[in-house]
Design goal:
Elements: E1 2-10, E2 13-19, E3 23-27, H1 34-55, E4 67-70, E5 92-96, E6 102-106, E7 109-117, E8 120-132, E9 135-140, H2 156-159, E10 163-166, H3 181-189, H4 197-205, H5 208-222, E11 225-226, E12 230-232, E13 237-239, E14 241-243, E15 249-251, H6 257-271, E16 276-280, H7 288-304, E17 308-313, H8 316-323, E18 327-330, E19 336-337, H9 343-352, H10 354-363, E20 365-369, H11 372-384, H12 389-392, E21 398-400, H13 406-419, E22 424-429, E23 442-446, H14 459-467, H15 479-500, H16 513-528, H17 541-544, H18 554-569
Parallel strand pairs: 3-17, 3-18, 10-16, 16-17, 20-21, 20-22, 22-23
Antiparallel strand pairs: 1-2, 1-7, 4-9, 5-6, 7-8, 8-9, 11-14, 12-13, 14-15, 18-19
């Protein structure tokens, strides 16, 4: 089992140093280096086996102890030219010598992996030098640049490590030739998983025990039965079908991408026992329920196969599943372990959700609102006003309180703060009869009007909604004018009803605008037009885009200013 890795100057990673374990999840935004870390392990494995095949046991001078690796041998890291493996394509640098003269020296890729085999720990470091566009040199890591060359020994257990890289499912080819194992590995490394799924199943079918297990797992997950693959020798092709819940037999290409992705993962695991499995986005093409089931199944199958798996993922579901029991490495700034922070933090994160901590690390601040409509209204106001908050609100870390209870927001915020002590936040509540904390890391504020929808309630805004996108018809009748007339009539009727019920008027700061005015208004309006209600509470944010700048209350600007102030105090992880 691999237990640790250190990476220098490889592709997107200038430096990375993190722990590994039986099951590891690498989490992070796009282009953050997760796949790069998987590829670094694949490069280390290729280099180790090449060196061991050609140099082990030979008495070559240390200066010539390296071996050449051809770019085409990098099955799991397909690149058109070798220098793409180096950080920022930087393969050489200028160094000063003692005489003051400059000299050119190679920039090395260093990859050091630690592991445990049969209870014995080991460490193996390799360095890679650029040779030309088609090749690079690999040798054991030099231990000190300032002394005569001394290199890290290559332990025998390290050479026994098997690593298999698997990208996500790329679709399924209509016709699949039978490939040799080496060609299967090349196609997988190139991301052409569409070309190998039936071949993997054919390999598993020859091991009946694994085939039966695969059939049972797919049946349990998707309710379909995989049928045995057939090799048609005359055409050199492998065909495969499945039987759906109605007993209809269909070609495997007719199945959904989620089913194909699951078959690919499980077949790959069964085909590679006692292997370090590098899985790039195993949750691809799977909906939420399946993501949780597949992660649990991968863990169980890998354990039964004596395998270790390291998976790169974007899934919050996978993140939450892994957080409580496995190692999670966050690729936010420098890669770091996220789940080793003490029992108090783990308890808080279990209650809150591990994905929340990840977002807190990434943004450094959090916004609390009642619901997603509130966010959409704030975004619309900020855009109309050309306010700096518009950019900040494009991708905030927002948590929806829904109950309008300040304590809910406080519990969530201070739970996150146990893990990120410099986290700041702002909470916006509807008007409530509770004391809010004026100072502190969580700025608590409330609307002076009853709720945020009150700031949409202006007659010109509602009329603008009725008239928008309406034109004269063929008979010259003004549809826009008709709809305005209907809406004005409905406003008057709802206003009269509010008076009868002794409730505040529609333009009052004290009315609960969404429930007591807007809901009955648009029910009556669309009913009069003989249309289904096209504007319910979750859609009221569309009205915000119709509020002209001069009708946006000064208080809205105050709240947007406060959001900007909090966001500017944030300290994202760097």
């Amino acid at each position: 089992m691999l237990t640790h890795i250190r990476i220098n100057n490889f592709k997107r990673l200038s430096k990375a140093d993190f722990e590994l374990g039986k099951s590891v999840v690498l989490i992070g935004p796009n282009n953050s280096g997760k796949t790069t870390a998987l590829q670094a392990l694949a490069l280390w494995n290729i280099g180790l086996h090449r060196w061991y095949e050609r140099r082990s046991g030979k008495g070559s001078p240390e200066e010539r102890s390296g071996v050449t690796i051809n770019r085409r041998d990098l099955i799991a890291i397909p690149v058109p030219v070798a220098n793409l493996l180096w950080r920022d394509l930087h393969v050489r640098s200028i160094a000063e010598r003692g005489s003051g003269k400059q000299r050119t020296q190679n920039v090395r890729i260093d990859i050091v992996v630690e592991g445990v085999t049969e209870g014995q720990p080991w460490e193996c470091g390799l360095e890679f030098d650029y040779a030309n566009e088609e090749s690079l040199y690999c040798r054991p890591l030099r231990l000190n640049d300032d002394k005569p060359i001394q290199r890290m020994p290559v332990p025998t257990p390290a050479a026994a490590v098997k690593i298999a890289f698997l990208p996500p499912m790329s679709g399924l080819a209509a016709v699949e030739p039978k490939w040799e194992p080496g060609r299967i590995n090349v196609l997988i490394g190139e991301g052409q998983t569409a070309q190998v799924l039936r071949n993997l199943c054919y390999q598993i079918f020859e091991q009946q025990q694994y085939w039966e297990m695969l059939i049972g797992q797919i049946k349990a997950l998707f309710g379909v039965t995989l049928l045995e693959p057939h090799y048609i020798q005359e055409r050199g092709e492998i065909t495969m079908a499945y039987r759906d819940s109605n007993g209809i037999e269909l070609d495997l290409s007719s199945s959904g991408r989620g089913l194909q992705q699951t078959v690919l993962l499980l077949a790959h695991l069964y085909a590679n026992p006692q292997t370090v499995l590098l899985l790039d986005e195993p949750d691809a093409h799977l909906e939420v329920l399946r993501q949780r089931q597949i992660y649990q199944m991968l863990t169980q199958v890998a354990e039964a196969q004596g395998s270790q798996f390291i998976a790169a993922s974007h899934s919050e579901v996978v993140l939450n599943e892994a957080a409580g029991r496995d190692i999670v490495i966050a690729f936010v700034g420098r890669p770091h372990r996220m789940d080793d922070r003490g029992s108090q933090v783990l308890k808080a994160l279990n209650d809150i959700g591990f994905d929340q901590y990840y977002q807190a690390e990434q943004t450094g601040w959090v916004l609390y609102l009642e619901g997603s409509t509130d966010l959409a209204i704030l975004q619309a106001f900020a855009t109309t006003l050309n306010h700096p908050a518009a950019q900040i609100l494009e991708q905030p870390f927002v948590s929806y309180v829904s109950t309008n209870l300040p304590q809910r927001a406080r519990d969530h915020f201070y739970g996150l703060r146990e893990a990120k002590p410099d986290l700041v936040g702002i909470a916006l509540f509807d008007r409530i009869d509770k004391n809010l904390a004026a100072d502190g890391p969580l700025a608590e504020m409330m609307w002076r009007r009853r709720e945020i929808e009150n700031y949409l309630c202006a007659e010109p805004v509602l009329i603008a909604y009725a008239r928008q996108d309406q034109t004269n018809d063929l008979f010259g009748f003004a549809e826009a004018e008709y709809r305005e007339t209907v809406l004005r009539k409905c406003i008057a009727e709802v206003t009269n009803a509010l008076e009868v019920l002794h409730k505040p008027g529609p333009w009052s700061e004290d009315i609960k605008a969404s429930d007591d005015f807007l809901d009955p208004l648009f029910e009556r309006y669309f009913s009069t037009l003989q249309l289904p209600n096209l504007l319910r509470k979750t859609d009221y944010h569309v009205l915000a885009r119709l509020v002209p700048p001069e009708l946006i209350a000064p208080e809205v600007v105050e709240k947007l200013d406060a959001i900007v102030a909090v966001a500017q105090r944030a300290k994202p992880r760097v």
